[in-house]
Amino acid sequence: MTENMKETYLMWVNGTEVEGGLEQLAIEDPAIGEIFAHCHAASAVNVDEAVQMAHKVFKSGVWSKVPRHLRADTLDRIAELLTKNLPRLIELEVRQTGRAIREMKAQVPTLTKWFKYYAALIRTEERSVLPTVGKLHNWTDRKPLGVVAQITPFNHPMLIAVKKIAPALAAGNSIVLKPSELTPLTSIELGKLMKQAGLPDGVFNVLPGDGVTTGKALVEHTLIKKVDVTGGTPAGRAIGAIAGQNLAHYTAELGGKAPLIVFEKAHVDLAVNGIVFASFIASGQTCVAATRIMVQKNILDQVMQKLKSKVQSIERRMGSPKNVDSMMGPLISAKQLRNVEMLVNDAVEAGVTVVTGGQRMTGKSSLDGTDFSKGYFYAPTILSDGPSMKITATRIWKEEAFGPVIVLVGFDTEDEALELANDSEYGLGAAIWTQDLSQAFRVSENIESGICWINTHHRNDPSSPWGGIKSSGVGSENGVDAYNAYTTTKSTIINYATAEDGLSTDDWFREGAGEVRYG
């Protein structure tokens, strides 16, 4: 494809495509290392204009004050249109992320659940009537916040965007979304679908751009009432500090280094299947990827051999992400590939053993002839303790690699397993594999994570809270809590006492003595 033939995407603002004020973003296909599209990026001026416009739309009440059943109907229509457009959206998602199409065909159709769930929630939400003392009637309402900023990463562009968009729209807010500069295209397409579904212009806007310029201008804007970000922990800390200065609400799903514990009472084959899914889906580029695998020592060799065989099978069946038979795609960029290589090489130089993988892939795919050297493919990798090195002392044990690399260590007791699992600054996801229910309960109670799976991994549902502790973030996605986080509580109190009662009890400054109320 020549430079002039590359498609150009514009920003999505106020229900139409708009040119940006910065140099265009180059969108790369990570499987072949080639630019296939360009996308306009938002300047600080563009950000201000978009936020001001979204604020006016919010204040107009065209979405924020419409009856909730009408908002719910619109969310359902968005779900219907999303279903009708799945083939082209999946194709675009595969191209910009490098994710294997078999993954996207499984993931993207589930996104309709979020719009349907929050449509159902606002149709059935009940107002609390509080037991206030006296002749008072006190009820609460949920009111939208205003203009909210949403910042999404490259690894699940549509999934993570939809998890934020659906509750924010259900609550009646206006949205300004900044997708990753690496993968902005499907977010723009979502905007077009929402307009087609009847969402009023200006309620949902997409401003592509980098974090330094576009992201910073967005989160600093004084009209932004909430910032919801998924990304790395350093960026999350910086964004949270800015949001705090403006007293904006803040939700952050940040880094992870998920532990996965396999006990001797686990079903070994089920556990091995669970490990490879937890670790290598999305080429390991997920915040909840199981990257630290702890196995009870009396089954360690057995698990190691089965796991090695399974991982090598994945590598043999890698090819073009567009191939439905390909098991795993490339990393997102050359930068990400260098980061994974650096952490693995650091561990190897320190004496860690490479069980399988451990290097960038080159040559041709035996599956379909794909030239791995043109893209950012890294072999699925297992690392373990070396003769002179404990892997728990390496950087890759501590730092988020965001790639298809796992470290495998043995343990003897539950207490030792928990000590290893909790040896991290992060606390997003964790998993336990055992057929002993009481053991699963004991360990899950003490593992330091916001999400804990038992005999499964990566399970995600609109109703199920998704968030972390420690350096993995603040707040939670999904469920009623996410909806509430996009609202503020309004308390209304009515005094229904008669005028005579009021005159006898509420004349605070009457002449003479007598009891008066307080509260």
From TrEMBL:
Give the signal peptide, or none.
none
Active site: which residues? E253
The alphabetical list of record keywords is: Oxidoreductase
Enzyme category, top tier: oxidoreductase
Catalyses:
an aldehyde + NAD(+) + H2O = a carboxylate + NADH + 2 H(+)
Spell out the molecular function terms from Gene Ontology: aldehyde dehydrogenase (NAD+) activity
Question: The Aldehyde dehydrogenase domain covers which part of the protein?
Answer: 23-491
So which domain of life are we looking at? Answer: Eukaryota
EC code: 1.2.1.3
Which family does this protein fall into? Belongs to the aldehyde dehydrogenase family.
Q: What is this protein called?
A: aldehyde dehydrogenase (NAD(+))
What does the organism's lineage look like at the top?
Eukaryota, Fungi, Dikarya, Ascomycota, Pezizomycotina
